[in-house]
Amino acid sequence: MQAGIAASVANDIARLLNAARQGTARIGARLVRSSDIAVLVRENRQGELVKQALLERGIASVQKSRDSIFRTREASEFRAVLRAIAEPGNESALKQALVTELFGFTAQRLFELDENPTLLERELEAFHRWHKTWHTQGFMPMFRQWMLQRGHYAHLLALADGERRLTNLLHLAELIHTESRLQGHGMHALIRWLQQKAEAAEKDEAHELRLESDENLVQITTIHKSKGLEYGIVYCPYLWLERDPKASTWFSWYDADTDDGVSRLQAEAFASDAARQRFREAEQAENLRLLYVAVTRAKYHCTIALVSGRIPAPFSYYSALGWLLFGKLAQGHEILSKLLTKGIQADERQTLMHAQLQRVVAQSDGCISHESMPVDDALISYQPETGEWQSSIRHYTPRYKPVPKVGSFSGLASGKEDERPDYDTLAWQTPVVHETLRTAFPRGAKAGSCLHKMVGGVGFYPAAC
């Protein structure tokens, strides 16, 4: 269900961007851009579904996440590459490295390696060179050599999510280099360190995914992180899906029956019905606040997905969005409850929901529309324009005239610069009230030399003379 909605949202974004290419989708006088669009999700896992769906349609996106860099696909593939470099004579490790997307070998190219010993020997020699560079000069020189010799910069950037992959790879290289310099790890020790970091659940800000670029990319972010931000066009595909407000082993709840109100930490096994009810009310209030945040992020257009019909148990239709739309209806309780054998059936529930949505549309004075989402729609591809881009050098035009300086060839040869102060320091400042002429006199060797020369040429004779 979630993957199908992500695909439908990605198709709709592809339609919008294709319409912009044809000049029919505009915001004011300008065409719609990818950077105008944001997809708001509740969990990073949902963002991954949307990101993958967009990628399948050729749409680049950026997801703001706090996931660990060591758990990315690039980290897993880079470990395979480093293992092959650490063991350059191991053909099995070599082939595992070559089939990663960092190298991009296909099954046909691997077959050619098996059939042509010359090609295999060439690959083994390349890994031997990288192994020698790593052993003699360190990790970072080897990494740069590997990136440049195989053209990995151009290879990765040619992919739809190339900036994301390249950013992850460079981030990994930086962390590995730092670890090797601080701890002095060898090749296999660094590979084990990468594996341990991937399996560990520790949180470190330095290990969080870095933002590759947000220039002309579809934004994918959680509702929490979108607070205070504004986007031109917003998609909210998962507002209908909320976690079950069932308390876990321990939960906190606010006890308002006391004089000042107290937040309590409660064990589920010993919790009272009142405590569980307060916990559920607090969760529902938080969901309403998140709903308000989500629907108020759009400046021009907001698309909200809502499910209806038969959905397998234990799904519950109750959500902040469902309560807002259907909670006040006469059959609101039945609509928002779980699908049971006895009670309202799926077809009747769907009819009631659609009827209510049509009433909302009729009362919106043309500001709201409602249409069925084609879940099984064919994939719509987006082909961005690839026009030639000419680079140019920006020329600096000074706004201030250069100040003439007096110098000599001997001064330049000796490395001495003109020590004359600028005009600001030459200006005489009137002593403030609490200063005397002695304390207001400029400091420094030059001022002292000047005073010495002036006083040295003055004769100390009686006034009568």
From TrEMBL:
Q: Which keywords fit this entry according to its UniProt record?
A: ATP-binding, Helicase, Hydrolase, Nucleotide-binding
Record keywords: Nucleotide-binding included? yes
**What domain of life does the native source organism fall in?**
Bacteria
- The name on file for this protein is UvrD-like helicase C-terminal domain-containing protein
Which organism does this record belong to? Thiothrix lacustris
| PANTHER family, A to Z | RECBCD ENZYME SUBUNIT RECB, UVRD / RECB / PCRA DNA HELICASE FAMILY MEMBER
Q: Which GO terms describe its cellular component?
A: cytosol; exodeoxyribonuclease V complex
Asked if Nucleotide-binding is a keyword of the record, the answer is yes
Query: Could you give a single Gene Ontology term from the biological process aspect?
Result: recombinational repair
Q: Which segments of the protein form a coiled coil according to its record? A: none
Annotated UvrD-like helicase C-terminal domain ranges read 1-228
GO molecular function list: 3'-5' DNA helicase activity; ATP binding; DNA binding; hydrolase activity
Which InterPro entries does the protein's record reference?
DNA_helicase_UvrD-like_C, DNA_helicase_UvrD/REP, P-loop_NTPase
Recorded hits in Pfam families, A to Z, give:
UvrD_C
